[in-house]
Specification:
Helix content is about 40%, strand content about 20%. Helix 5 crosses helix 11. It is of the alpha/beta class. The chain has eleven helices and 14 strands. Helix 5 links the parallel strand 5 and strand 6. The structure holds nicotinamide-adenine-dinucleotide (NAD) and (2S)-2-hydroxybutanedioic acid. The site of (2S)-2-hydroxybutanedioic acid has 10 residues, from helix 9.
Length: about 325
């Protein structure tokens, strides 16, 4: 028997990630083939017409699982009864900007959205923040939703995780499916730390297989951490299809579970694990069981990793302090 329809709200629906994301949500790739979807598209007034155009195209796909599309520029209407919130709408950075430069420009969007989620969302609401700076925007949204459990607010580092999988697979000459237990720690920014010390390549320890600390420090880590800037340089626009793909991966795994014997990465509200101050939204190694993320515990962190995790977490502390002084939390 088919499941009850799930309401999925996508903010920034007329943007480039929105365009790459909505068709995959409506086709069933987000929640599986047995779950019908109702879409809510939130846009700013100037972009509502473009969102209407996307909705026309969604209709024209005749997706069997799509049970309706509402388009609005009203934040409260957008989140009324929402089960899954994909918070994409925000300004992307352009050449020469760091993601932190977007703090002030975009931070103001996420407080009202958190408040609307607090006021109207369904009890099982799950929120993924994609709009940058994603970790701190998730922190802002959560701060405005005191009645929603903190673990329902997450930030997207799955794109970084997928980028790291791909780079490590190329280096070691295996397929991405042969790599498990990679971790992205910290912020979705150039300070993030992609960690291969616990990863496995076809069942063998990845750091031992690579056996090349210079490649790790000077090639792998910067390539993954600065991939967003490299895409902007090459395309003239920030990543879109790969970002949408990562959002699908994140929510699908959250709802349906991660595979046994592996883990993934997600930005979660810290419970203090691995010395990350409680309340910061930081990326961790995670599994999903019973529809909830759990941080993988008990990993030994060596000095190489400790330094890099601490540096990224320090940046998150500074971002939190910056939005606090702007009155956003
Ligand atoms: P875009 O400019 O193409 O689209 C953004 C859309 O958001 C626009 O249509 C705009 O009208 C809308 N918007 C702006 N303010 C809004 C608001 N208050 N409510 C609803 N909609 C609003 O940008 P994009 O390329 O789709 O990127 C969106 C965001 O995602 C950017 O911040 C980008 O940096 C970020 N991003 C994050 C990741 C990640 O891995 N976390 C990856 C890629 C991009
Ligand atoms: C990315 O990682 O591609 C996005 O966060 C866009 C950016 O600004 O890097």
């Amino acid at each position: 028997m088919a499941n009850a329809p799930v309401t999925v709200t996508v903010t920034g629906a007329a943007g480039q990630i929105g365009y790459a994301l909505l068709f995959r949500v409506a086709s069933g790739q987000l929640l599986g083939p047995d779950t019908p979807v109702k879409l809510r598209l939130l846009e700013i007034p100037q972009a509502v017409k473009a969102a209407e155009g996307t909705a026309m195209e969604l209709d024209d796909c005749a997706f069997p699982l799509l049970r309706g599309i509402d388009i609005t520029d009203d934040v409260n209407q957008a989140f009324e009864g929402v089960n899954v919130g994909l918070l994409v709408g925000a300004r992307p950075r352009t050449k020469g900007m760091e993601r932190g430069d977007l703090l002030e420009a975009n931070g103001g969007i996420f407080g009202p959205q958190g408040a609307a989620i607090n006021a109207g969302a369904a009890d099982d609401v799950r929120v993924l923040v994609v709009g940058n700076p994603a970790n701190t925007n998730a922190l802002i949204a959560k701060a405005h939703a005191p009645d929603v459990p903190a673990d329902r607010f997450t930030a997207m580092t799955r794109l970084d995780h997928n980028r790291a999988l791909s780079q490590l697979a190329a280096k070691t000459g295996v397929g991405v499916a042969d790599i498990t237990k990679l971790t992205i720690w910290g912020n979705h920014s150039a300070t993030q730390y992609p960690d291969i010390f616990h990863a496995e390549v076809a069942g063998k320890n990845a750091a031992e297989v690579v056996n090349d600390e210079a490649w790790l420090a000077d090639t792998f880590i910067p390539t993954v951490a600065k991939r967003g800037a490299a895409i902007i340089e090459a395309r003239g626009a920030s990543s879109a299809a790969s970002a949408a793909n990562a959002a699908i991966d994140h929510v699908r795994d959250w709802v349906l579970g991660t595979p046994q014997g592996d883990w993934t990465s997600a930005g979660l509200v810290s419970d203090g694990s691995y010395g990350v101050p409680e309340g910061l939204v930081s990326s961790f190694p995670v599994v999903s069981r019973g529809g909830a993320w759990e941080i993988v515990q008990g990993l030994q962190i060596n000095d190489f990793s400790r330094q890099r995790i601490d540096a990224s977490v320090q940046e998150l502390v500074e971002e939190r302090d910056a939005v606090s002084s702007l009155g956003l939390i």
